[in-house]
Amino acid sequence: MSTHFSNQPSEFEGGLLAAQPLRTLRLGGELSAAAEFTTEAPPSRTGRRGLIDLVISGIRRRFDRERRRRKVGRAYDMALEIARVVPRGSEVLDVGCGNGFIAHHLSALLGVAVSGIDLEDSTAAPINYSRYDGKRFPAENNSCDAVLLCYVLHHAQDLGVMLKEIHRVLRDGGLAIIYEDIPETCWDRFVCSIHNKQWKERTGACTFRDESEWRRLFEDFGFEVSSERQLSRMRNLTHPVRRRFYVLRVSAASAGSRRRNASAYHARQSSICARSTALDLY
């Protein structure tokens, strides 16, 4: 009895092979549906570098977005604080407005457009903005109900000129709202010195003063301190220094002197006009 072995697959085996195609092994021992025995190429250096750049770019965008949010949020908090002491409908000038977001938020809170001035050509927020030459405010005499100076006075290269300009543009009974850094402790002085290094090339050297010095300066230039209070160092964690919030009014004696000077000026102008008219008639 002879046994016959055939190399041809049976009908049953052929069906199985047709239903499930042959699969090859990878080097790692896993089955592959590839037609040939192949290995996976490791990711290229260029691909890894592109992935790293993508991750870094995403982190940078997120950081910039959070920084903008903090700036806008701090500006809104300060605008709320200012709106509590400035009557609604007041005409306000924000001196050294920076990005303009305090003026932008305050406009909505007061129901009137707040104007901003600074040394730059433009500002980020959509406000009524004018460029300031560092000497004379681009505003008329007695044209403002309030003037804001949010961490600005320590940048002034001629503080006397700036305080006189505040006096000039404020109406009788007007307010000067001032925020200032106060170098009380060694830590405060250290933080202020860093701030000075950051801004020295842009606006000139900063001059920080203590509370008594600011009070004396305000009084010397015809202002009286209506109210003041200390602010937390933790308001800005990137600049943790002691701060103070001042609300100033033009002193009664100064306002009276200003009115007398204005009357004398108008009298002189009237006299000049009268003489000119007389000469014309002659």
Describe this entry's structure for a reader.
With 282 residues, the protein is of the alpha/beta class. It folds into two domains: 53-250, Vaccinia Virus protein VP39 (Rossmann fold); 255-282. It has helices at residues 11-19, 45-83, 101-110, 159-169, 186-203, 211-220, 252-281, and strands at residues 24-25, 31-32, 92-95, 115-118, 128-131, 144-150, 170-181, 223-231, 243-250. A seven-stranded mixed β-sheet has the order 5-4-3-6-7-9-8. The protein has a two-stranded antiparallel sheet with strand order 1-2. Strand 1 (24-25) and strand 2 form a beta hairpin. Helix 2 crosses helix 3 (101-110). The protein is globular, with a radius of gyration of 36 Å. 23% of the residues are buried.
Give the secondary structure arrangement, pairings included.
Elements: H1 11-19, E1 24-25, E2 31-32, H2 45-83, E3 92-95, H3 101-110, E4 115-118, E5 128-131, E6 144-150, H4 159-169, E7 170-181, H5 186-203, H6 211-220, E8 223-231, E9 243-250, H7 252-281
Parallel strand pairs: 3-4, 3-6, 4-5, 6-7
Antiparallel strand pairs: 1-2, 7-9, 8-9
Q: Could you say which overall geometry the principal axes of the C-alpha atoms support?
A: globular
- CATH domain topology of the largest domain: Rossmann fold
Widest sheet, order of strands: 5-4-3-6-7-9-8
Average pLDDT works out at 80
Rg calculated over all Cα atoms: 36 Å
Question: What level of helicity do the residues show?
Answer: 40-55%
Please report the first level of CATH classification, the CATH class of the largest domain: Alpha Beta
Low-confidence stretches: 24-38, 272-282
Tell me the CATH architecture of the largest domain.
3-Layer(aba) Sandwich
Class from secondary-structure proportions:
alpha/beta
Number of strands: 9
Fourth-tier CATH superfamily name of the largest domain: Vaccinia Virus protein VP39
Largest sheet composition:
7 strands, mixed
State the distance separating the first and last CA atoms: 158 Å
Helix and strand pattern: HEEHEHEEEHEHHEEH
Q: Total number of helical segments?
A: 7
The total number of structural domains is 2
Strand portion: 15-25%
